[in-house]
Design goal:
Number of strands: 4
CATH topology: Rossmann fold
Shape: globular
Mean pLDDT: 92
Strand order of the largest sheet: 2-1-3-4
CATH class: Alpha Beta
Number of domains: 1
Largest sheet: 4 strands, parallel
C-alpha cells in the first residue's frame, strides 16, 4: 500500500517547507511520502540547512522545487507554510486532498546581526517542529 503523501508548500521552497520536510521525515518514521515545493524555486537556504543540522537533521541534499500539479492532486495532505503560498496555491482538483495552513514568518527576511538572523531561523524551526509533532500525535 502506498504511503500517504504530504506536500509542504511555501513561496520559495528554500526554508520553511524544507524544514518541515526534514522534520516530517525524521519524526514520521518514514511512514509518509514527503515532498516540498514552492510557488518559485529559490534554492536551498544555507541558514536553514545549518539550523536543521543543529538538531541532528540533514536537509543539505534537498532540492528546491516548483509546485507540481500531479503531486498536488495525489497528495493526502497539502500544507501551506506561509500566507502567500496559501493564497496562491494552485487549485486542487482532487476532493480527497486535505489542505491545511500553518503560517510561519519567513526567516529569510530577518534583519540584524548574523546571530539575530540565526535566532529567527531557530525560532521558525522550533515552531515548525512543534506543528509536525502535533500533526503526528493527532494520528494523521
Amino acid at each position: 500500500m502506498a504511503k500517504p503523501l504530504i506536500y509542504f508548500l511555501c513561496t520559495g521552497n528554500s526554508c520553511r517547507s524544507q524544514m518541515a520536510d526534514g522534520f516530517m521525515n525524521a519524526f514520521g518514521e518514514y511512514k509518509y511520502e514527503v515532498k516540498s515545493a514552492g510557488l518559485e524555486a529559490h534554492g536551498l537556504n544555507p541558514r536553514a540547512v545549518k539550523v536543521m543540522t543543529e538538531v541532528g537533521i540533514d536537509i543539505s541534499n534537498n532540492l528546491s522545487n516548483v509546485i507540481d500539479a500531479n503531486t498536488l492532486n495525489r497528495s493526502a495532505y497539502v500544507i501551506t507554510l506561509c500566507g502567500h503560498a496559501d493564497e496562491h496555491c494552485p487549485v486542487i482538483s482532487n476532493p480527497n486532498v486535505i489542505k491545511l495552513h500553518w503560517g510561519f514568518d519567513d526567516p529569510a527576511k530577518a534583519t540584524g546581526t548574523e546571530e539575530e538572523i540565526m535566532e529567527q531561523f531557530r525560532a521558525v524551526r522550533n515552531s515548525i517542529k512543534t506543528k509536525i509533532e502535533d500533526f503526528i500525535l493527532d494520528g494523521h
